[in-house]
Amino acid sequence: MTGARRLAGLVLMVIATIGTAAEEASMAVRPEAFLSSDADDNEVRKMSLGWDWRHSDRDHWTGVDVQQVRFSDADWSHSEQRVYGRAASTLGTGAVTDATWRWRVKLGSNGHTALGSIGLNTEGPNRREIFFEREALETRAGVERRQMYNFAGAAFDQPFNTRTSGTVLAGLQTFGDGNERIHLRGNLVFSAVPEQGLSLQVRSRYYHNSDPYLGGYYSPEWYGEALGVLALRRVVHGYTWRGVAGLGRQRNADEGWKRARLLEFGFESPRWRQSWLRLVAGYTDTPVATSSGTGSYSYRYGMLEAVAVF
To answer: How many domains does the chain have?
Structure first.
């Protein structure tokens, strides 16, 4: 525990020294909440309050985040506190464009081990991304064993013409118990009615476990799914509304094909002096990384994020 606390303190000191590209900066408060539940009676609640002592814009900020986390099932629960240092900026000192590489860091500890994420990406039609995440395995067995997973990968978007584009992701996830999971994902997007923000999509994913069935989380030898998706994104008076509905098929090494569904709703307010509010809520019956995937599976989630700049 002492080593983890020292690591967290070192991370905070390093992030505190990171400068941003803008000369003038404000401060900001960042409340966040995440809730999820599934058919295995697993529930996750994460409540955070962040403070940016330097906040220039959406790409340049430095701060700290304090988080209260609760994992539970039908007859068990575990709570813990986490502290993170957070920062974001861009590479280079030129004007920020879609081709500019942006980076974000969120590193900290729960008192036992290091946690967090690192991301590097561009924006625009040719978006590129490299990412790494370290998080707790959010099941009872995983929490009691203090088991972690690490997930690293890269993704890129490729436009084919003015209305069609694709996305490819490849990644490696390790679970700390010897199992290594290779991820492959691919999306194809066709802008059916551009003026109305309506698109048709095909979303697919596949992964393979090197040591399946180790217990405590969903880990068949392999899993695959394909979804046909209808997506709508509209901006009304500066407010962004988004809806996604998907239907398809899923299977794994032990079962035949069965139905797969996805519903998601998103909302984001316009930016007022760099302040904004975002809400995402959804449902899926395809297994997530830390589920056991038993029986008729379902997963519900909601996320609220806000930034108040002053």
So the answer is: 1
Q: Do the Cβ atoms of 299 and 290 come closer than 8 Å?
A: no
Residue 48 makes CB contacts below 8 A (sequence gap 6+) with 30, 31, 32, 33, 65, 66, 67, 68
pLDDT tens digits, residue range 15-60? 444 443 344 679 999 999 999 998 878 899 999 999 999 999 989 9
CATH for 28: 2.40.160
The pair of three-digit structure tokens given for residue 263, joined into one six-digit string: 């519903």
Taking the model in full, what pTM does it have? Answer: 0.87
Is the Cβ–Cβ distance between 125 and 141 less than 8 Å?
Answer: no
Q: How far apart are CA 291 and CA 15, in angstroms?
A: 34
The vertex-185 CA angle with 184 and 189, nearest 5°, equals 160
Measured CA to CA, the distance from residue 209 to residue 246 in angstroms comes to 26
Spatial separation of the C-alpha atoms in residues 5 and 125, rounded to whole Å: 41
- Which structural domain, as residue segments, surrounds residue 179? 2-309
Question: Which runs of consecutive H residues, i.e. helices, occur in the chain?
Answer: 2-16, 140-144
Report the alpha-carbon distance of residue 252 to residue 41 in Å, rounded: 22
C-alpha 192: how far from its chain's center? 27
Distances, alpha carbon 99 to alpha carbons 56, 102, 119, 120, 128, in Å: 20, 9, 15, 12, 9
